[in-house]
Write a structure and sequence with these properties.
mainly alpha; elongated
Amino acid sequence: GEEARAPPSASTSEGPGGALRRRAWLAASVSGGLLLGGGAARPPAAQALYIPEGESFEGPPGAQALAANQKIVDLQALACWEELKCDGDEIRRYLGTVGTSSPLFGLEKRLKPLYGDNPELEDACDLDELGLLIQESDYLAYSSIFSMGSGGKDPKPIVADCKTVVDKLGKRLQSLAQAVQKLKA
């Protein structure tokens, strides 16, 4: 099962993001409690937490899986995909491969104990495949940044390939989110 971490310190010396970290921890604890037997779960969109730039997700792994799913839903909803003009670094920030504020940052590592306690999750979403999809999306997003400068190649086909992989990642995370919501529901 999942266990929430102790709440972040309430000391005044913890810096400007301390109150936000406490709110994120509290929201994750509440949503995690709802997901793991405390009552009806809220829709995933309501569970997505604001994570200040430079801070990482705090909360139980199940809540992080739900927030990661919502983050990819948000990425897929960007208007830039329509004309294949998405910025590679922006995509990478959503994927958690640039910065630490995305709930996808460190997702595989955080989910391993949850998968160990709930092997049925592997049927919903293969954890190794999830990591590979994040890596492949990151590689394509990164490649799109440098395509023009390193050979004058149009980045649109690379962005299109990236969108295809991000969509596949989204399907896997949606399956995982549904399975996590069913845990002890």
